[in-house]
Amino acid sequence: MRKQLSGSDVKELLEKLPTQLQTFTKKDKVEQFDNIYKLNEKPFLFEKDDKLIPLLKSITNPESYPHAIVDMGAIRFVVGGADIMRPGITQMSNFKKDDYVIIIDQTHKKPLAIGIALFDSDEMKNMKTGKVLKNIHFVGDDLWKIS
Prior knowledge:
It contains four helices and eleven strands; from the N terminus they run E-H-E-E-E-E-E-H-E-E-E-E-H-E-H. By secondary structure, the chain is of the alpha+beta class. It has a six-stranded mixed sheet. A hairpin with a 2-residue loop joins strand 4 (42-48) and strand 5. The longest helix has 10 residues, at 7-16. The chain is elongated and about 50 Å long.
């Protein structure tokens, strides 16, 4: 289903978004294609489980979002679609369980994936092992290819 959002629809969408994603106005052309939102012809958001989540290519400052930084050994697994395990994380910001979290590589500080937190960050910091982030969008996946 393709739908161009009206000015009031765009205003409503802006109210739902975190400040990092409020980079457009009612005057911009915003379209919805099923669960993908396009801004001026370019995909920038997707909806999953009633959450609006940025596409990786639309993230300009990944450390301004809830994030986790992974070591170089984790990268090939993360971009292969694997969930993120606690030992691969070297740093993390504060976030709550079920928040979306940007996964960033330690060396280049580039976004690699977006995951859903399986625990609060405070709880994760005390963990030594286990799966902590569910990978929902990563470099090279279908969402990456359309954006």
